């Protein structure tokens, strides 16, 4: 296949990419050494004696002893605010051209540095993901000749005095290599449209002119885009417009809640590939068809650490304690919930990204995202992860033959005691009490701690099934519609009550 050969040649020539699986421990030690070597003369590197760490016999242990764990607030308050003020060589060599504005589920805005080295890393990881498609044997011979629809945030970045700001997908798309732009859709002009509804209208108008082989984006917004294309062009499925569409690269949120409704828009099955792209970097990608887990990208500018997600290691604010037990990839075990720490070529150091992960295959360095450190529901001992919530929702979809696109839960006080209250976004409204009884039972089955809490500290549970469009209207008004925006699964009580008031105002 000539085009695959051409892509591989360009990948190797331009980015030094070699399609091989590195030894995990060796690759990670090499990455840490490279990070420390390059950053040793920065202000951060001098403060934390990177030169001495590099001379130690055990570089990983020396690094962990010398450098504290950071969350965003600590890194920003101690270091990154200097970057926004125009200083250079702070946590990574040189100045700062880009900041990624966090578009995750937390309410506080974050400006995360994106260096040129990180952009190179993201491009290399993207090429790894493309090259891994050779492992999926359902693809036709001409697949790599087709175009790629990347539904991300606007490439029209915010201009500041000495840098630009935007979401990571927009920054990445604005820096695509010239050879790739032939494949990239919707193209820079349409991708630069900031208004979501206008962007989707333009995509729907132009869609028949494109020959899309794969698409990528957060499931909820991809589904809205595909529905608009199908409706605008008065066809039955997206394959009436894009007959060569074979691959959907998903990420950002769990895919399974969207599978059923998305597949109604397809004429034939797609290959689904999960990815782990965050504002801080491209961390992992699914590399083989017989698993839904993702392989950590070990040799591309990121060093990973793992903190067992236990009360002993976490404080009341959901942050890693100073004396926490922190493990390298070699020391971590399978089937344990870990808080993920990363050190990267953007100058994040032992940075708590906010996600919890589980290693599913240590030999292959494969993981599954299980939730967020602040999005575990554990007010009265429920200890429910988002992963377990998603498992229960999949069961509810099958039991009630419905589509559950979004949901949110909170522990709220009622009559002097705590209850768990849920809002479920579905394609049709069903009886809340009956649904809640079934959901309650399913949660007891997936989590023994929840079952204990239900018999003791958790008085009751309530649920209301509402049209999923109400979630999107809330997102449009209070967060942002489209792009890479994610709707939270767990809210604090005050935020949840504000959400509830807004939902009731739409009735």
* Number of DSSP strand runs: 18
Q: How many domains make up the coordinates? A: 3
Nearest-integer average pLDDT: 85
Number of helix segments? 17
Protein name: GH3 auxin-responsive promoter
GO molecular function, one term: acid-amino acid ligase activity
InterPro entries: GH3 (IPR004993), GH3_C (IPR055378), GH3_M (IPR055377)
Structure description:
It is a single chain. This protein is an alpha/beta fold and 507 residues long. The chain has three domains: 2-80 and 287-371, no CATH class; 134-152 and 175-278, Rossmann fold; 386-505, GMP Synthetase, Chain A, domain 3 (2-Layer Sandwich). Helices cover 36% and strands 21% of the residues. The chain contains 17 helices and 18 strands. It has helices at residues 2-15, 24-39, 43-47, 50-54, 59-66, 72-84, 116-131, 168-174, 187-191, 196-206, 219-232, 256-263, 386-400, 432-446, 448-455, 469-478, 493-505; strands spanning 98-101, 111-114, 147-150, 158-159, 164-166, 184-185, 212-216, 247-251, 271-278, 281-285, 294-296, 302-308, 337-344, 351-361, 366-372, 404-414, 417-426, 461-467. The strands form three sheets. Strands 6-3-7-8-9-10-11-15-14-13-12 form an eleven-stranded mixed sheet. Strands 2-1-5-4 form a four-stranded mixed sheet. Helix 1 (2-15) packs antiparallel against helix 7 (116-131), helix 13 packs across helix 14 and helix 14 packs across helix 15. The radius of gyration is 23 Å and the shape is globular. The termini are far apart.
């Amino acid at each position: 296949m000539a085009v695959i050969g051409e892509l591989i040649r360009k990948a190797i020539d331009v980015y030094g990419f070699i399609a091989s699986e590195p030894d995990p421990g060796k690759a990670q030690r090499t990455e840490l050494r490279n990070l420390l070597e390059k950053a040793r003369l920065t202000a951060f590197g001098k403060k934390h004696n990177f030169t001495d760490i590099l001379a130690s016999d055990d570089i990983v242990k020396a690094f962990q002893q010398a450098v504290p764990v950071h969350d965003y607030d600590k890194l920003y308050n101690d270091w990154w605010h200097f970057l926004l003020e125009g200083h250079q060589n702070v946590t990574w060599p040189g100045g700062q051209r880009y900041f990624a504005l966090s578009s995750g589920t937390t309410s506080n805005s974050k400006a995360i540095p994106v260096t040129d080295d990180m952009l190179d890393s993201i491009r290399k990881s993207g090429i790894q993901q493309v090259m891994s498609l050779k492992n999926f044997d359902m693809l036709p011979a001409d697949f790599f000749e087709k175009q790629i629809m990347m539904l991300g945030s606007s490439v029209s970045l915010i201009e500041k005095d000495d840098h630009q700001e935007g979401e990571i997908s927009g920054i990445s798309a604005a820096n695509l290599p010239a050879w790739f732009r032939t494949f990239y859709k919707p193209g820079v002009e349409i991708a630069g449209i900031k208004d979501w509804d206008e962007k989707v209208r333009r995509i729907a108008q132009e869609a028949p002119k494109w020959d899309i082989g794969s698409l990528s984006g957060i499931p909820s917004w991809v589904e809205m885009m595909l529905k608009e294309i199908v409706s605008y062009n008065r066809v039955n499925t997206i394959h009436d417009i894009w007959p060569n569409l074979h691959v959907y690269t998903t990420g950002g949120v769990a895919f399974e809640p969207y599978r059923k409704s998305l597949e109604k828009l397809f004429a034939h099955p797609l290959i689904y590939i999960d990815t782990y792209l965050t504002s801080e970097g491209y961390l992992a990608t699914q590399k083989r068809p017989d698993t839904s887990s993702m392989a950590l990208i070990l040799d591309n500018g990121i060093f990973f650490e793992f903190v067992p997600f236990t009360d002993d290691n976490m404080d009341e604010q959901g942050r890693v304690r100073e004396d926490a037990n922190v493990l390298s990839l070699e020391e971590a075990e399978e089937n344990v919930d870990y808080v993920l720490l990363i050190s990267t070529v953007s100058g994040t150091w032992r940075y708590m990204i906010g996600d919890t992960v589980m290693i599913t295959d240590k030999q292959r360095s494969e993981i599954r995202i299980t939730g967020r450190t602040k999005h575990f529901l554990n007010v009265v001992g429920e200890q429910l992860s988002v992963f377990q919530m998603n498992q229960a929702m999949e069961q509810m979809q099958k039991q009630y033959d419905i589509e559950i696109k979004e949901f949110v839960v909170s522990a709220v006080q009622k009559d002097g005691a705590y209850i768990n209250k849920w809002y479920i976004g579905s394609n049709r409204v069903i009886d809340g009490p009956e649904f809640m009884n079934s959901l309650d039972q399913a949660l007891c089955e997936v989590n023994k701690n929840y079952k204990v809490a239900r018999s003791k500290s958790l008085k009751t549970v309530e649920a209301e099934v509402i049209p999923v469009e109400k979630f999107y209207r809330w997102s449009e008004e209070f967060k942002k519609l489209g792009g890479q925006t994610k709707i939270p699964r767990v809210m604090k009580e005050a935020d949840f009550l504000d959400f509830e008031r807004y939902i009731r105002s739409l009735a």
